[in-house]
Amino acid sequence: MSSEQKNKILDALSGSAGRVLELQSSMTALRGLGPDNGGDGEQKKADYLEAWLRGFGIDDIEHADAPDARVPSGRRPNLIVRIPGRTERMLWILGHMDVVPAGEESLWHTDPWSVTRDATDEDIIYGRGVEDNQQAIVCGCLLAAALKEQGIVPDIGLGLIFVSDEETGNACGIQHLLREKPDFVSPGDLVVVPDSGSPDGRFIEIAEKGILWLRVDIEGCQCHASRPDDGRNALTAAAAMILGASEVEKRFSARNALFSPDRSTFTPTRHEANVPNVNTIPGKEVFYIDCRVLPCYTLDEVLEAFRALGRDVAERYGVSVRVEKHMEEPAAAPTAEDSAVVTSLKKAVGEVLGEECRCGGIGGSTVAVNFRERGIPAVVWALIFENCHSPNEAARLSFAVKEAQVFASMLFTD
Predict the structure, then answer these.
(1) Per residue, what are the HEC states of 193-232?
(2) Which of 68, 98, 329, 393 is the catalytic position?
């Protein structure tokens, strides 16, 4: 019986490309930029998704919204959607509703906030968020709608988790959700986060590096550029700190083949504006360093290494240097390769895609770490190009359909 129902739902999902385009187009237009990224939050996207699901008779939708006075709605939405199965076990699929800004729009070939199909391959669509992370939301919605339409009760229940604030730290998203409802995922449940992967579906992410974002404030003395001896150039000192990041990286020289790249990385990134004119030496500089740290090191070790570099730069250039944590997310223990969620996903990928999976780790951050640190095995898997945050972000309509079919296969235990 389970085998027949599984085949029925797989067949029903095979014709879902139009539904993928509908969902992707609507969500992209709604944007979902968080306030830290200059947007109004995710409320409109959450309202759309809740209405869409209720249209299929899916009414078990629970809210765990986080208050946030910076957005018009006053809250950052987090939704938990349940479709019961024959047992108490659940397969949870998690997607985040927020996206990053489009960036330099001149680099886009299409309007980033309007889904556009490729001129030569209509299976490919472009738009901000179509991969990161709307596809995860779409595949869950496809499966939920198909289960209701076909009247199928799977062996394992389906749970969808749609969160806010993933792109800017998770405080109003999964972290708030797990504080408010710490036990909504049971130890025997399966948790999949479709937020990283590969175009062929062969890669299952089971581990992530620790993440530390550092803010570096340098105070010198502003003066006229024609009289540099009258001041202390904060930009020159900042350049020394930036170049010194590569020397700090050499001190954390361990390698771990589970990850790619297989080392810890320390990358200067954002730089805040200093003086508005060319002929003034800046007296203040602020920039950031993105650290991705192998689990064998603590984030405090990295922080102290950069503070030591800061003390050296301060002495050499006659400035003050302050290095502070801007955001941190320590590494959690990896998900075991023989865990139930890994074996179930491998089996489903083999059945649906005919591929054999390998497990590994990434330097990027996903919400899976929030489950792993609570002792709940979670995996990250998706069919994606891995072009998130890039101009001309792209996805395939068929990727979402195949993802939904893989997750459908996981709902049946035969």
Answers:
(1) ECCCCECCCCEEEEEECEEEEEEEEEECECEECCCHHHCE
(2) 98
